[in-house]
C-alpha cells in the first residue's frame, strides 16, 4: 500500500490558468505544506493552519478524480503549497502515468524529488523579492539540470520593477528554458471580481509595456493568471 499524502483539495475538471499549460483542461490535486512563506501567497491555506489536509493514498486520490470527472480527463496538475515536499507523490505520478494520464507540477525549485523527472510539464517558479523569500541559485541550477529542457519551463510572478529586474536575471541565467512572466495578484482575498479584474488588467498591460522594448526579453511570454480573470479569487475552480 502506498504512503498517504496530505491533500487539501481535489477538484476539476477546469482549465489550467497559468504558465506553459495555460488553457489545458485539467484536474487539480493540491497538497499541503510549503517550505516558503511568500508575503502574497494566494494559497496560504495550504500552510498557515487555516486549511485542513486529509491523508490520502494515491489510489484514493485517483478514485476522487474519477468520481469528479468519470472518464472525462486526461491531465492532472499537482499543485500546493510546494508539492516537492512529498516524496510519496512519486506513487501517484506512476499510477497516473500507468493510466495514460498526463501530469503537470508547479514548484519554486527549492526541493528536489526524483518523481519530478516523470512529470510531463514542470513549472519552476522562483520567487521574486516582493515575496520576501531568498532564492538559492545553486540549488535552482542543480534542480533544473536534473530535468529535460523540453519538460520544464520557468515562470516569475511580477508585482513591481524590482521583481521585473529579478525576472530578467532568472531569464539571463537560464536562457535555454521557456520563460513566462506572470502578473501578480496583490489581493488574493478581494471578493469584488470586477475591481480585481480591472486591477489585474492594468497590471497586465503594465507588464507587457515593460517587456515589449526590453532587449533582454526577446523570447518571453507574458501571461495573466487566466483563472482570476474568469473566477476572481474563488477557490476550487
Ligand atoms: Fe505560497 Fe507558493 Fe510561496 Fe509556498 S512558494 S508560500 S505556496 S506562493
Comma- or semicolon-separated keywords:
237 residues; alpha/beta; 9 strands; binds iron/sulfur cluster
Tell me briefly what this model is.
Helices cover 29% and strands 22% of the residues. It is an alpha/beta fold and 237 residues long.
Q: What is the mean pLDDT?
A: 94
Strand line-up across the major sheet = 3-1-2-4-5-6-7-8-9
End-to-end C-alpha gap: 31 Å
- Overall structural class, as computed from helix and strand content, comes to alpha/beta
Listing every helix as H and every strand as E from the N terminus to the C terminus, the arrangement reads EEEHEHEEHEHEHEH
Largest sheet composition: 9 strands, mixed
Helix count, DSSP H or I runs of 4 or more residues: 6
Strand content: 15-25%
Relative helix content:
25-40%
Low-confidence stretches: none
Q: What shape does the CA trace take?
A: globular
Ligands bound to this protein structure: iron/sulfur cluster
What does this structure look like?
- By secondary structure, the chain is an alpha/beta fold.
- It is built from 6 helices and 9 strands.
- Strands 3-1-2-4-5-6-7-8-9 form a 9-stranded mixed sheet.
- Helix 2 links the parallel strand 4 and strand 5.
- Helix 1 crosses helix 2 (89-98).
- The longest helix has 20 residues, at 193-212.
- The radius of gyration is 17 Å and the shape is globular.
- It starts with a strand and ends in a 6-residue tail after the last helix.
- The mean pLDDT is 94.
- Bound molecules: iron/sulfur cluster (SF4).
- Iron/sulfur cluster is lined by residues 34, 36-38, 41, 43, 46, 80-82, 108, 127.
